[in-house]
Design goal:
CATH architecture: Alpha-Beta Complex
Distance between the termini: 37 Å
CATH class: Alpha Beta
Pfam families: DUF1801
Number of helices: 4
Strand order of the largest sheet: 1-2-3-4-6-5
Protein name: YdhG-like domain-containing protein
Strand content: 15-25%
Structural class: alpha+beta
Largest sheet: 6 strands, antiparallel
CATH topology: Aspartate Aminotransferase, domain 1
Order of helices and strands: HHEEEEHEEH
Organism: Pseudalgibacter alginicilyticus
Radius of gyration: 13 Å
InterPro entries: YdhG-like
Number of strands: 6
Length: 118
């Protein structure tokens, strides 16, 4: 994958390892249905969605997909960690065999869209 330069989110997913694709497809659908006006693209060699600025994005690691969003609060981080997700300052790691915490991610995307509109 390092030699390939995807131009779209779908290309990024298609050239990724098979075991990672389901998580990324679900993230793509969740972002696109939560904020239908977001524009998808590739920035910094990873999928990024923009809506009045950067909305959210994801990247691939060896054993997980990292979902990045600026609106990740300390409160939401604790909720996600209790559910078994590892978090960073603005990221949530989703192992290939984990479900996506759909409701929490929807709230984060909606919150980021509101923040970007200010």
């Amino acid at each position: 994958m390092a030699d390939l330069k995807p131009k779209t989110v779908d290309e990024f997913i298609d050239i990724s390892p098979q075991e990672s694709q389901e998580v990324m497809i679900k993230l793509k659908k969740l972002i696109e249905t939560t904020e239908p006006n977001a524009e998808s693209g590739i920035s910094w060699n990873v999928p990024i969605y923009k809506y009045n600025g950067i909305l959210a994005g994801f990247s691939l690691a060896k054993k997980h997909v990292s979902f990045g969003i600026d609106s990740l609060s300390e409160e939401m981080r604790k909720i996600l960690e209790k559910k078994g997700y590892k978090t960073g300052k603005k990221t949530i790691q989703i192992k290939f065999d984990q479900d996506i915490p759909t409701e929490e991610f929807k709230l984060l995307i909606q919150e980021q869209a509101k923040l970007n509109a200010l």
